[in-house]
From TrEMBL:
PANTHER family: MAJOR FACILITATOR SUPERFAMILY, TRANSPORT PROTEIN HSRA-RELATED. Gene3D superfamilies: MFS general substrate transporter like domains. It comes from Lactococcus lactis. It is a multi-pass membrane protein. It comes from the Bacteria. Coiled coil: none annotated. Keywords: Cell membrane, Membrane, Transmembrane, Transmembrane helix, Transport. CDD domains: MFS_LmrB_MDR_like. Residues 19-499 form the Major facilitator superfamily (MFS) profile domain. It is found in: Cell membrane. This is EmrB/QacA subfamily drug resistance transporter. GO terms for molecular function: transmembrane transporter activity. The chain crosses the membrane at residues 20-42, 54-78, 85-104, 110-131, 143-167, 173-193, 205-225, 237-256, 277-301, 307-330, 342-360, 366-388, 409-430, 473-494.
Length: 501
């Protein structure tokens, strides 16, 4: 009898579970879409008769529009029923997915993708923000376990599904496939999702603060992108200019927030909370530790193992399975023990699944790599979730939109920063080592009295490039491992609960 009561107590209320899964279904399409498009870059470039730089603008525009949407959405949910906002966001995402699929030139494609990204920004922020309004404090962990589902599925299923679609059909279907998912999400939303009261109807639109936060986010993210796309000269003039603009806008926002006495879209008084500050620092660092390797792993399997994009995506499935296995357990542990012990244990497991990649080579057994990735998934799956939960501890319901805006901005910038830094590390290793190793290789061949024909030189170059690239990946995983260790510092300031024996 006691055990039965305990199980009932641990379970999420049915209404809350229903609302959570309906919102998760709505977020699946944006999460998958953002990862599928990267697989189709070559096809898009060919069919739209454009350059790689212009195609990159479509991807960049999506990310930047998503960043702009975050503070705008924070204002909208203060004044309008969250259910209606979600419905219109889903319909907009579905419409502009269709328009992206029928885009007739690169200009129309870039515009449609940007609006699609703006809609996705609303959807992903609403998923967390709305549920925070109705979730009891002792159920936050279990709720975040549900909400994290599309975050886990996106990077794992997206590349595989995208590769299969491009190979079996064409790039248009990468966007058309969103439409049935959106239709299902809209129907579930309309008939089964509860209404959500506006968080703070009296709040006025903070246009200036919203523009400063959106501009600062765009500046930092775009600057990091310009650094990573020109990693041979990471600190190039464009990177420095846009990062400085982003930082300057955030500094101006700090001054503006002080003048307005925290009556802004993101009140900086939140950072007086130990939990809020520590969790956001941890989330930023986790963006480097998790997003960097997410970029490296497919490249490792393609460039070192010679896999296709689809095969590389399939190799990442064990990591996704590791995340899925621990997801329900992590939620209950957060509610029972607090964020600190869960993050520290997750860090240790993440290191066990990341450090082996520092020593991996082209002949490493695939089964062994699959097991390591499974362990890594178990650790990474429990890393950000507890910190995202800790952000909302002790906040009033009217403060939830502002706190969500801050968390999402920091997460977006951290993810972009992680991808850019790891990309720069790999490129720096390749450019610094390739000439010296090529010279050494040719000297070795000459010492062996090998006739240095063009074919022999070409084979030597391929061998050296593969070896040097592998060295770059290994250093990238080393950087990720170091950052994982550093996350332990802010983790010590997260919440911890006494466990009743």
């Amino acid at each position: 009898m006691a055990k039965s009561k305990k199980n009932e107590k641990e379970k999420l209320p049915k209404e809350l579970t229903r609302n959570a899964w309906i919102l998760v279904v709505g977020a699946i399409a944006p999460m998958l879409d953002s990862t599928m498009v990267n697989i189709a870059i070559n096809k898009l470039q060919s069919d739209l008769h454009t350059s790689l730089d212009m195609i990159q603008w479509a991807i960049t525009g999506y990310v930047l529009a998503l960043a702009v949407a975050v503070p705008v959405c924070g204002y909208v949910v203060n004044h309008i029923d969250g259910k209606k906002v979600m419905q219109w966001s889903l319909l907009s995402f579905g419409l502009f997915s269709f328009l992206s699929g029928i885009a007739w030139n690169i200009d129309s494609f870039i515009i449609f993708r940007a609006v699609q990204g703006f809609s996705a920004g609303f959807i992903t922020l609403l998923m967390t923000t709305l549920l925070m309004q109705i979730t009891p404090p002792d159920k936050l962990g279990q709720l975040m376990a549900v909400v994290s589902t599309p975050i886990i599925l996106g990077p794992i299923i997206g590349p595989v599904l995208g590769g299969a679609i491009v190979s079996g059909a064409n790039w248009h279907w990468i966007f058309y496939v969103n439409i049935p998912v959106v239709i299902i999400a809209v129907l579930l939303n309309h008939f089964y999702l509860s209404s959500f009261k506006p968080f703070n109807p009296k709040a006025k639109l903070d246009w200036f603060g919203t523009l400063l936060l959106a501009g600062g986010s765009v500046g930092l993210i775009y600057g990091m992108m310009k650094g990573s796309t020109n990693a041979k000269n990471f600190f190039n003039s464009q990177m420095i200019t846009f990062v400085n603009i982003g930082l300057a806008l955030f500094v101006i926002y700090g001054i503006y927030n002080r003048i307005r006495k925290n009556n802004t879209v993101l009140p900086l008084r939140f950072f007086k909370s130990k939990n809020f500050t520590a969790a956001n620092i941890g989330i930023f660092l986790a963006g480097i530790a998790s997003n960097g390797p997410m970029l490296l792993l497919p490249l490792f399997f393609q460039n070192t193992k010679g896999f296709t994009a689809v095969e590389a995506g399939l190799m990442l499935i064990p990591q996704g399975l590791g995340m899925m296995v621990t997801r329900p357990l992590i939620g209950k542990m957060i509610d029972r023990m607090g964020a600190r012990p869960v993050v520290l244990v997750s860090l240790a497991i993440s290191l066990l699944g990341t450090i082996p990649f520092i020593f991996v080579h082209e002949n490493t057994n695939l089964i062994w790599l699959g097991l390591v990735l499974f362990v890594r998934g178990m650790g990474i799956g429990g890393l950000q979730m507890p910190m995202m939960t800790d952000i909302f501890i002790g906040l009033d319901k009217q403060d939830i939109p502002g706190a969500s805006v801050g968390q999402r901005i920091i997460q977006n910038v951290g993810s972009s920063f992680g991808s850019a830094v790891i990309s720069a590390v790999v490129t720096a290793v390749v450019t610094s080592e390739i000439a010296g190793q090529m010279t050494t290789k040719l000297h070795q061949l000459a010492a062996m009295h090998t006739n240095l024909t063009p074919t022999v030189i070409a084979k030597a170059k391929t061998s050296v490039e593969k070896a040097v690239t592998l060295n770059g990946y290994q250093l990238g995983f080393l950087v990720s491992s170091i950052v994982l260790i550093v996350i332990a510092i802010p983790a010590m300031f997260l919440s911890q609960k006494k466990v009743n024996k």
